[in-house]
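Data availability (excerpt). The following record was deposited with the supplementary files.
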Amino acid sequence: MKKVLLAASVAVALSVSAGAADFVLKFSHVVSENTPKGKAAVFFEKRLEELSKGKIDVQVYPSSQLYKDKAVLKAIRLDSVQMACPSFSKFGKFVPNLALFDLPFLFKDIDQLHRVQDSDVGQKLKDMVTAKGYVALDFWDNAFKQFTSSKHALISPTDAKGQKFRIMSSKVLEAQFKAVDANPQMMPFSEVYSALQQGVIDGQENTNSNIYTKKFYEVSKYMTVSNHGYLGYLVVMSKKFWNSLPADLQANVKQAMKEATAKEREWAVELDQSQFAEIKKYADETKKLEITVLTPEQRDAWRKVMSTIYPKFYDDKVIGKDLIEAAINTK
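Predicted structure:
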């Protein structure tokens, strides 16, 4: 009898704790938990539950357990999940202005990039996304992109002439490579390794993490550390869920997100540096990869040529002159 009573009391306790939260927030993303995005999502979960004193139960679903990036935005609109963190390219069809971050050599360094994201420029972009039925919370980092090639080292802009570079679907990236007389080839990310291996393409651009984890360095002879473009994510929330929260819990969400963003930025830099170190180790040990780090002068030469594409995107329906100039003038 005592065992029955004990079991009953445990069941009651569990049901009370399970029902303690007033709101359940499902956070869906596509990467593993040990990535900067994955770790930041877990940090956000713990911090929001702490700040809300358990009123919001955050449930993080990593590694596409619920949705892939292409499907998650529809799920957010339906409130099937409440948060996601897709790459900028997934917003391209309804907020093309986010292609601002694709523009080559627009940012001097990561600090200036963050100042742009935290400025009126970033807020305007978030407002555009929010106007489309989401609540845009903050920008999270992947990293800056580098070039690799199997033909010859990319040190000056003329070195790219005639080379075939893989790009993801982007008018900006297409224009970027045409500016240096290269041939952009649109191709799924999953096909890049074999295309490099077979010589279907000569080169590609990507972050150190993608170059390292997908082993692009093994099928390239040259790598140029250019930091010419940026890959990032936008954290968005279901508008229905946001509107259901009282003001104090909305403030908790904003605070937890602010802290998680600061952490995510730190972890992104750490991963970028550690994985570049692994690529460099491979280069030093095998002598099969030659790495060039552009000097400020060399980088400026690339910037002068590639920045000639900016006026092509001055139309507000593409990116917008005001946004581009405001980003450039952010000190």
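Summary of structural features: The longest strand covers residues 134-149.
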